[in-house]
Amino acid sequence: MDDVTGSAASPREGGIARIALAPLEDTSTFADRAYVALKEVIVTLNIYDQPAEVRLDERQLASDLGISRTPVREAMAQLEREGFVRSVPRRGVYVVRKTRAEVIELITAWAALESMAARLITQNAKDEEISQLRKMFVTFENGVPQAQLDEYSEINIRFHQSIISMSHNKVLSDLAENLFTHMRMIRRKTIGEQDRAQRSMRDHMNIIEALEARDTERAEDLVRNHALGLAAHVRLYADYLD
């Protein structure tokens, strides 16, 4: 008797029936899925507003996710390699709070990548792509009211993501991906401080004008100075990072 498992078999080859299987829709492992879930929670946690260190309980996380502790452990190892958590012997795993100096280094690196992306946009992006940037800020043409800071914060983050993706440079995008996740947390924290939102809005409009005009040098300078302005703000006012 032929050894056939399943309800559908293909024509016989050499007297042996072959079963037919549909491609798997989700080929990710439990560790992959745990990694995505944990990273999403960490990114939305706003760690810089937490009054104390945030400890990750491996047993509780495994229970919450409905999986064993092994994939959770693998996910946390990956997050540690990316700088989101740190393992302390005999104490546990904690969500990383960057120091002021570390945050400034992140922003400085981001300034280099994003300014190059701006240069590439002026050379390679389509007019339709650039026009989408202006549409993001239609709601805020008259400024950024305090009541809309959360909404503006998300659009601000999407704007910077778009600058990177519109460069159409995969290597640059890959380098920026992990860095941006760290940047997302500090951007969300600082946008409501001092007059950051209003200055951010003005900077964005100037950047968009330079990109629309295909003014390569000006666009590159404006984007770099915009990022370094955030670094200067952190240096002067981010006492919570000490």
UniProtKB/TrEMBL annotation:
Residues 28-98 form the HTH gntR-type domain. PROSITE patterns: HTH_GNTR. InterPro entries: GntR_C, TF_FadR/GntR_C, Tscrpt_reg_HTH_GntR, WH-like_DNA-bd_sf, WH_DNA-bd_sf. One of its GO terms (molecular function) is DNA binding. Transmembrane segments: none annotated. Keywords: DNA-binding, Transcription, Transcription regulation. The keyword Transcription applies. The keyword DNA-binding applies. It comes from the Bacteria. Pfam families: FCD, GntR. PANTHER family: TRANSCRIPTIONAL REGULATOR, GNTR FAMILY, TRANSCRIPTIONAL REGULATORY PROTEIN. This is Putative HTH-type transcriptional regulator YdfH. It comes from Variibacter gotjawalensis.
